[in-house]
Amino acid sequence: MDASDWDARYAATDLVWSVEPNRFVAEIFSDLSPGAVLDVAAGEGRNAIWLAEQDWHVMASDYSVVAVERMRTLATKRLGDDSGRLTAVVSDATQAAPRPAGPGATGEYDAVLFCYLQLPLPERAEAWRRGVEALRPGGRLVVVGHAGRNLTEGHGGPSSRDVLYDPDEVIAEVAGLPVDVVDAGVRDRPVPTADGERVALDIVVVLRRR
Prior knowledge:
By secondary structure, the protein is an alpha/beta fold.
């Protein structure tokens, strides 16, 4: 799907995604000290807005104009006087990352988040590289995505293996970049359906910039 496809999908409904943050994003970032974070392919901002509520200064990017406009509206409603903690911009994940905004911005991020950025190679590897480049030394790159094995063993997510990936693939794709692996694995994510609860398989990879 390109940007116009996503524009049409977002425009067709009031809210495509849940307003709650992804469970793994909330788990990981709850253990980190708030700073400057870049949320790439942020969609309507469910993770970005939650991060701002946790005192992070958030730069949230997406290549859908409709998604970014909706994120700005939702952030104003949810954050009120603290809406300045979140800056939403139109940007492509494979291009140079937008610079941090907010008080004390240094030009580098303390964390970069990719949550369900389902791109094929080589675009996916280029997005990881751009994310690493945007981090300060010691900063975290967090990847949450639909696992490759979800196609046959899990529930939901894209139907093309080309845009799915397992932890070992992400680690191979960042080989040569100045990062160390903090955590990498496949996790269960319960999904309620009309036929009862199903289980989706997500990958969670956390990298630390050297």
